[in-house]
């Protein structure tokens, strides 16, 4: 028996034609936890915040300041729900892989050995085959016995693998691809809303010969966002599994206990950084889609508001004379 490392999420059961994987089960649990925590904090919100409310307000205030500082106050308020939601969900998904039992508790499932491996085991080389043929010609009974043994090994080519019940959602390429598609769709929506469909095309084709490059760049963001997040999280989980195996094999003093702790803190740091990177890249793409149109409108509105605050004397206008004069 051996622990199985699988790139694709394993299917646990089916709901009709829909396969339910272990990453989907963890995703539902993460979403329920996020909704439950924020709903509880919102219902018990007080003027003087407690510890839980203070932590949530600190996270929200940090994200709001970051979004408004990058996209401006007007556009920042519009995209803040998406950016904040992505960051919190990805952070919770990344950290869910560090919970004891996630990826390590499951059911043993018997799988057949790969046909190529079985063939490589039973297929002799040309020299060995010639020698065996000669021996077989001299001893037909022995040749028949070896053939029966080889067939029995092929028939019994099974091994057991551990299928975990829970798996980090970010370690499933389908989940990261779905979030990348949400980002791509949102960027195009705000770009068309800001410039119009024709204006969006002109914005990408300025100058015209750059349009194919801009189109490839827009589509490549889907691959870069999804592959970056999936690769980092999946590689981190494999690294932790290797470190646990090495620590368990050493069995010297407290090394099996302390050795993986360093890598747990590293995964905690990397999971937070990857969530922040995904959210910031989404924010930057949306700001670029807004382009200069909304920036000019915001600057014009700010300039007009400043002019209204200035009196007529400061603007160079004539001051009305008093009635007595």
Structure in words:
- The protein has 325 residues and is mainly alpha-helical.
- It has one domain.
- The chain is built from 9 helices and 4 strands, in the order E-E-H-H-H-E-H-H-H-E-H-H-H.
- The protein has helices spanning 22-43, 51-71, 73-96, 115-122, 126-138, 140-155, 173-204, 211-250, 255-309, and strands at residues 11-15, 18-21, 106-112, 158-164.
- A two-stranded antiparallel ribbon has the order 1-2. A two-stranded antiparallel ribbon has the order 3-4.
- Helix 1 crosses helix 3 and helix 7 runs parallel beside helix 9.
- It is globular.
- Residues 115-132, 134-155, 293-297 and 316-325 have low confidence and may be disordered.
Gist?
The protein is mostly helical. The protein has helices at 22-43, 51-71, 73-96, 115-122, 126-138, 140-155, 173-204, 211-250, 255-309, and strands at 11-15, 18-21, 106-112, 158-164.
Q: Identify the strand order in the major beta sheet.
A: 1-2
Kindly report the average pLDDT value. 76
Helix/strand order, N-terminal first = EEHHHEHHHEHHH
Q: Could you give the distance between the termini?
A: 105 Å
**How big is the Rg?**
31 Å
Q: Strand share of the residues? A: 5-15%
What is the makeup of the main sheet? 2 strands, antiparallel
**What class would the helix/strand composition place it in?**
mainly alpha
Unreliable segments (pLDDT under 50, ≥5 consecutive)? 115-132, 134-155, 293-297, 316-325
| Count of DSSP-assigned helices | 9
Number of E-type strands: 4
Shape: globular
Domain tally: 1
Question: In percent, how helical is the residue content?
Answer: over 70%
């Amino acid at each position: 028996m051996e622990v199985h490392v699988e790139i694709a999420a394993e299917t646990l059961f089916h709901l009709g034609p829909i396969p339910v994987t272990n990453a989907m089960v963890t995703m539902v649990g993460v979403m329920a936890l996020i909704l439950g925590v924020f709903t509880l904090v919102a219902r018990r919100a007080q003027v003087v915040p407690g510890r839980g409310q203070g932590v949530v307000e600190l996270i929200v205030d940090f994200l709001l300041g970051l979004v408004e500082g990058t996209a401006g106050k007007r556009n920042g308020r519009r995209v803040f729900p998406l950016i904040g939601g992505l960051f919190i969900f990805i952070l919770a998904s990344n950290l869910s892989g560090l919970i004891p039992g996630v990826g390590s508790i499951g059911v043993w499932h018997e799988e057949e050995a790969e046909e190529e491996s079985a063939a490589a085991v039973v297929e002799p080389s040309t020299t060995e085959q010639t020698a065996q043929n000669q021996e077989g010609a001299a001893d037909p009974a022995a040749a028949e016995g070896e053939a029966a043994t080889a067939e029995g090994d092929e028939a019994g080519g099974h091994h057991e693998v551990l299928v975990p019940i829970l798996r980090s959602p970010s370690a499933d390429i389908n989940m990261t691809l779905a979030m990348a598609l949400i980002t791509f769709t949102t960027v195009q929506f705000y770009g068309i809303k800001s410039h119009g469909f024709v204006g969006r095309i002109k914005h990408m084709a300025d100058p015209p010969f750059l349009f194919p490059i801009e189109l490839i760049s827009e589509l490549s963001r889907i691959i870069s966002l999804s592959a970056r997040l999936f690769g980092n999280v999946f590689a981190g989980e494999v690294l932790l599994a290797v470190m646990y195996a090495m620590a368990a094999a050493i069995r010297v003093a407290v090394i099996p206990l302390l050795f993986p702790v360093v890598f747990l803190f590293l995964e905690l740091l990397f999971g937070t950084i990857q969530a922040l990177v995904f959210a910031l890249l989404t924010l930057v793409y949306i700001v670029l889609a807004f382009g200069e149109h909304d920036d000019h409108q915001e600057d014009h509105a700010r300039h007009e508001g400043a002019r209204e605050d200035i009196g007529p004397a400061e603007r160079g206008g004539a001051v009305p004379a008093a009635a007595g004069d």
